[in-house]
Amino acid sequence: MRKLIALVLAVAMMLVVAGCGGADEKKADGDKQIKMGFSQIGAESEWRTANTESVKQAAKDAGIDLQFSDAQQKQENQIKAIRSFIAQGVDIIAFVPIVETGWDTVLKEAKDAKIPVIIVDRDLKVEDDSLYVAKIGTNMETEGQKAFEWLNKYVTDNNVKPHEGDKLNLVILEGTVGSTAALGRTKGFGDGLAANADKYNVLASQTGEFTRQKGQEVMESFLKSYGNKIDILFAHNDDMALGAIQAIEAAGMKPGKDIIILSIDGVKGIFQAMIEGKANCTVECNPLQGPLLMETAKKVLAGEKVDKVVYVEEGVFPADVAEKVMPERKY
Ligand code: GYE
Questions:
Q1: What fold does the segment set 141-285 form as a domain?
Q2: pLDDT at 24
Q3: Residue 121 beta carbon below 6 angstroms from any ligand 1 atom
Q4: Pick from 291, 284, 298: nearest CA to 328
Q5: What value does the mean pLDDT take over residues 125-130?
Q6: Domain made up of 35-138+287-313: CATH architecture
Q7: Is 265's C-beta closer than 6 angstroms to any atom of ligand 1?
């Protein structure tokens, strides 16, 4: 009897082992779940939260196992995360470069480990473009240009006059120093300013690190230095504009009226502010990049050719359309 039980057990074990082997073989055939390591920069803005949610949801929908890592605004944490993804042997790595430079070494390590890398949202500069397979994001320089075009048309159409002197005085809240989002928007908007130097004067331009808190603090200091002189605020993102709105109100001025406010992203918070008459325009920057990322990752791993750079489409929303558009906003 005991022998019989032992035999049954042995056969059962063999079946289990064979079963496992079978599953493994199937995995090796390409049916195994894709494992993606994703390094996000943090949670500095409403935009970033939407971007993170989009990536997580799209991974779920695509059946991809997402290893998500939050770098808390530090490039060194991103580099550590990428190294740990390499050590884990993930199938593919995706990340949002917080700044443009400083990635060559770690991306070379990924390449040596034969792990493809996809760049998301912000751009980077590396000596060798083969260090990544694709970039998915938005054109930040175009966003800056669109912001300037809207402003220039608005002040012309409404015959906006400076509070003081003969030029319109601007203050600028810049994004994270060294990030594509700040560099591109500075360039796009700055080209417009340079071509219209007879009309505009930049009083001050300083980073507000893409956060509401810092936007508010820096705007407070701008108001202390320049007070009523400020005609226009351009913020590299909506969150900093929202922080600045609080500072302007606290100083007893009317945001959106005493100071024209324009920013980039198109998050719900700024739509609400526009409906309340406290902001004047937002240029859209689309954070919903998850589905395209997952689709691209699958293609890359299946050996299909993908576009090296894909920019997602974006619009411009002045305050007068805010109420109508708000219900359709997805982030
Ligand atoms: O505009 C800002 C965020 O990189 C485009 O980063 C992104 C920017 C976005 O924190 O809100």
A1: Rossmann fold (3.40.50)
A2: 38
A3: yes
A4: 284
A5: 97
A6: 3-Layer(aba) Sandwich (3.40)
A7: yes
In the predicted structure, residue 189 carries a pLDDT above the cut 70: yes
The stretch 65-78 carries a mean pLDDT of 98
Closest-CA residue, ligand 1 atom 5, reads 181
Mean pLDDT (the chain, rounded): 93
154: how many CB neighbours lie within 10 A of its CB? 17
Q: Provide the strand spans (E) within the chain.
A: 35-40, 65-70, 92-95, 117-121, 134-137, 168-174, 200-207, 232-235, 260-265, 281-284, 309-311, 316-318
d(CA 158, CA 160): 5
pLDDT tens figures, 245-271: 999 999 999 999 999 999 999 999 999
Does the CB atom of residue 122 touch ligand 1 within 6 A? yes
Q: Distance, CA 47 to ligand 1 centroid (Å)?
A: 6
Asked if residue 155 has pLDDT above 50, the reply is yes
